[in-house]
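hey m, so remember when u said the tokens were messed up on ur end? i reran from scratch. heres the input so u can diff it against urs
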Amino acid sequence: MLESLASFQSELADPLGPRILKAEEASPTLLVLSANSAPSLQQLTDSVVEYHRSYPECLQDLAYTLALRRETLHQRGFVLLGGDHGTVAHVGPAGKPDPSPPKLAMVFSGQGAQWPQMGLLHIQHDSEFRSDMIAMDAVLQGLRHPPSWSLHDELAKGPKTTRINEAEISQPLCTALQLALVRSLARKGIRPDAVIGHSSGEVAAGYAAGILSLPEAITVAYYRGFIMKGMEGRGAMAAIGLGSADVTPFLIEGGAVVVAAENSPSSTTISGDVLAVEQVMSAIKEAHPEVLCRKLAIDKAYHSQHMTSPASRYLQHLQEDLKEKVTGIPRLAMYSTVFGALLPSDPIELSYWSANLISPVKFSSAAAALMHDLPGCILMEVGPYA
């Protein structure tokens, strides 16, 4: 009783609020099961589901006991139980463990996938996830140019008040969510063998690869958005349903429009001056009326000559707050979308992150290299929609 009271008081003192949610808001809980035979596993599954229906208040204790207080046998399965009325969300397939499990590659999405209140349930449900957010907020407040907002406050805002689509806000919020997810997965024993990040997603990938510490990663993400505040001049970007080789002939000479991202063999993003981007789009539509050609809802021309001056300021801020340090050597395979290949096992300078802002995103090439080196690997997206 005293322990429960102390825990409740601790939750109330938490600046991110108590983690008690209504039952209908609760996320499903994973229960892991094992038995010596398939029939025994099915019988265990039925028993667990029935027990939960009778004693829904014991769900967390049940999950803990099954995961950590039972011998792991050869036939394995899992059940996801929802927080509302004891409903079974999913019963996993039974089977013996793979003696040679596939490698895991984490894929970190870039800016643009954000949505209001993303990750808020994680913060409310998971005290360690919440602690990671608090720690990152503390890092940001200690910078030379601290934000006037907090990660939690911005994530808690609804669709009518959110600023999540502003570059200053979306960059650090998306990365903070990814960093907290990586740490949460690691606590559950899920760690990648390789990583790859699209555009700003490389920051969280760099953390997962051991190149950046948690304070360094959130600092790199924060200043990537900070330098966009009050940036003069407008640019544009557009998604084209063609490979970069097919898009290149339509680009205007002089660099007014460039390939910003090689997303796949049939998907390219272009970036540059507003009128020039619209001119290229018109030419592509005329030549390929059946092809996707859509202007993005963004007024910044990332990965183009528009980023030259911001990238210089970006590097200066990083050097001031991170003391011009080398950010580290990859501890596992990181496939660089700046180079389109595996990063060498050499120290990565801070200038890499400013290069990430200007250089085209060679995601397609980097992903092809990853799949070549790790055939049959599992790809896990880590981001707002993961």
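this time it looks ok to me. The longest strand covers residues 257-264. if urs says something different then somethings off w ur setup not the seq
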